[in-house]
Write a structure and sequence with these properties.
about 140 residues; Rossmann fold
């Protein structure tokens, strides 16, 4: 199985945000164990850094950057080209960032987008599932 992890899943793991941390960590563990091929959209690195700094201002920048680099090594990268961004702009999403996530998932032929916000992916061409739904599938 191939999944694209939405930004919130990675942030939940990085910041150990409860009550989401445990299920997000289990999703990541499945990817690390090789039972599932996990991807992260490279364009989300900026968002991850910004949100983590905003939520944990006492976290040293060097430590945060190392953690983000670790995630990029644990997960495969899903990259976008200019034409992918244009294709995402034509999708009927309320949030352009979610359209970009959908485009990444579509480009890598992901089976699912794993996210806590499945309602944001109502118009998705790739089925969005929660971490709990994902764990129920494996």
């Amino acid at each position: 199985m191939k999944v694209l992890l939405d930004t919130n899943i990675i942030i939940d793991c990085l910041l150990e945000r409860e009550p989401y941390f445990t299920s997000s960590k289990e999703v990541l563990r499945e990817c690390l164990d090789g039972r599932t091929v996990g991807y992260m959209a490279t364009h989300t690195v900026n968002d991850i850094f910004y949100i983590a700094q905003k939520n944990k201002p006492d976290l040293p920048t060097e430590k945060l950057v190392k953690a983000i680099v670790m995630f990029t090594k644990m997960l495969e990268s899903a990259n976008l080209t200019g034409s992918d961004v244009e294709a995402a702009s034509l999708l009927r999403f309320t949030d352009f960032e979610d359209a970009l996530i959908n485009q990444c998932a579509s480009k890598i032929n992901a089976d699912y987008i794993v996210t806590r916000n499945i309602k944001d992916f109502n118009n998705s061409t790739v089925k969005a599932i929660t971490p709990q739904e994902f764990l129920g599938l494996i």
